Amino acid sequence: MSIGNSPEDERPFEDDPPEARLSVGHALKQARIAAGLTVDDVSSATRVRIAIVHAIEADDFAPCGGDVYARGHIRTLAKAVHLDPAPLLDQYAADHGGGRPAPTPAAPLFEAERIRPERRGPNWTAAMVAAIVAVVGFVGFTAFKGGDDGGTTQVADGTTPATTKSPTPKSDKATPKDPKPTPSDSAIAAAPQDKVTVQISAADGKSWILAKDHNGRTLFDGLLKQGDSKTFQDSDKINLVLGDAGAIQLYVNGKKIDDDWQPGAVERLTYTKGDPQVG
Fold it and tell me: Which of 86, 119, 147, 236 sits in a 20 to 30 Å window from 16, CA-based?
C-alpha cells in the first residue's frame, strides 16, 4: 500500500475570486445618489431624456441608439454627477467589445452636452434689404398710378389736343390696414376661462421644453427651435421645465409673463387657471 497525496490533494490552489466591480450604470447611479440628485435633476441639467437615464443606470444601453451615442451619454452623465468619465468609458468598451472609439471631431456630437444653446442676433442685413425693396416697390407703384390718372391726349391729325379733366387728387397716404394680431391677441382668443392655457414661443433661440398636465402626463418633451411655438391646455394646471428660459416668450391665460430670465437658465414653473403668477 503506497502512501502519498490523493489526486484531490495534488490539485493547484485556486485563486480567490476577484472582487466584483461596479457596472457602468451602477456606478453612475451611486454617484448621483451621493451627490443628492434625482433622475429629473440629472435629466434637466444634461438634456438626456429621463427614460434614457433610467435605462443607462440599469445597464441597458439599447435606447441610446448605438455605441457612439451611448459613450456620449455616459460622458455627459458622469460629468453631471462629478465622476471621471474615462474609467467608465474604458469599462463600457471592455464590456461591449470594440475598444476605444475613433477620435471624434471637435464639434459636439450630442445636443445634451451643449448646456447653453447658441444665441443668434437679429439679421439686420436681411431686414434692411427687405425694407429697401418695399420702399422701391411702393414708389414705383405710386408713380405708375399717377401716370394713369389723367393728362393730355394727342389727336392723330395734329389738331388741338383735347384735354381731360384730372380727377380729384387722391391723398398720398395709404389707408392703414388692420394690424396683424400680436401673439398676445392670439393667446387671449385661445384661452378659455375654465382651463389653463400656456403658449410657449422660442423667440430668441432654441430651448428644450418639458410640459406635463395635472396628472403628471407628459404633453411635450423635446427641443423647440427658434421661431416655433407650442400651446398647452389643461383643466387644472400645467407644469413646465424650460431648458433655456432666456430664449422663451411665455403667455399664460392670454397674458405675457415678463420675468427677466437669464440666457441658459433652467426654470421649473407651474401655472393654474388663476394665473399668471410664477409657480
Answer: 86
What does the block give as the cell for 242? 424650460
The structure's pTM equals 0.34
Which amino acid type is present at position 115?
I
Q: pLDDT digits over 208-242, tens only?
A: 899 999 899 999 999 888 899 999 999 889 998 98
User: How many Cα atoms are found within 13 Å in the side-chain-facing hemisphere of 33?
Assistant: 7
Residue type, 158: G
In the block, cell 383643466 appears at 235
Residues 9-22 as b/e (b if ≥16 CB within 10 A, e otherwise) read: eeeeeeeeeeeeee
- Residue showing cell 475570486: 17
CA separation for the pair 109, 75 (Å, rounded): 12
- Cα(34)–Cα(55) distance, integer angstroms: 19
CA–CA distance, 246 with 203 (Å, rounded to integer): 9
**How many angstroms from the chain centroid is the CA of residue 44?**
12
